[in-house]
Amino acid sequence: MSEGEWAEQRRRAIEAHAAARQEVRDGEAARARELLLGFVREAGSRGIAAEKLTAEAYGGGGRLRTGLRGWYLRADRSVAVGTDGQFYALSAPGGLWARLAGVTVLPATPRMTVGEGGRDGDSMPLAELLRRRLGDGA
């Protein structure tokens, strides 16, 4: 096999591996979205009121208005599910304008394990976070 053929074979293998990993991530995100939508329905049926969500300014420095409503999933208010069924990581750039006008936080791709790859003790299955939040009620 020539060097060019080997390089082409290697490139195709890398692309196939990346496509397979993306397919797994997409499937995981779809399952997580179903859990989030189920949570929104269940929270509504139980009368657990959504609240205004705020984001933490990068590097600390207080909370910022987001215009979103939903339910915090962690006590530190770092992640939430919106009334739209989307998953939000609640951090944003701070500054004077952000304090005055608020910030836009875009939905994040949900994962079945929240905080995966973070510090020890920071990761938890999404299903468990949702179950706990439903158990906490209002």
Give the topology.
Layout: H1 3-45, E1 51-57, E2 63-72, E3 79-82, E4 87-89, E5 91-92, H2 96-101, E6 113-114, E7 124-125, H3 126-136
Parallel strand pairs: 1-5
Antiparallel strand pairs: 1-2, 2-3, 3-4, 6-7
Helix pairs in contact: 1-3
Features:
138 residues, alpha+beta, five-stranded mixed beta sheet, two-stranded antiparallel ribbon, 3 helices, 43% helix, 22% strand
Number of H/I helices: 3
Q: Quaternary arrangement of the chains shown?
A: single chain
Q: Residue-averaged pLDDT, rounded? A: 90
Q: State the major sheet.
A: 5 strands, mixed
Widest beta sheet: strand line-up: 4-3-2-1-5
* Pattern of helices and strands: HEEEEEHEEH
Tally of structural domains: 1
Helix-and-strand structural type: alpha+beta
User: What is the molecular shape?
Assistant: extended
Query: What's the total count of β strands?
Result: 7
Strand content: 15-25%
Segments where pLDDT lies below 50 for 5+ residues? none
Terminal-residue CA separation: 66 Å
Radius of gyration: 19 Å
Provide the helix percentage. Answer: 40-55%
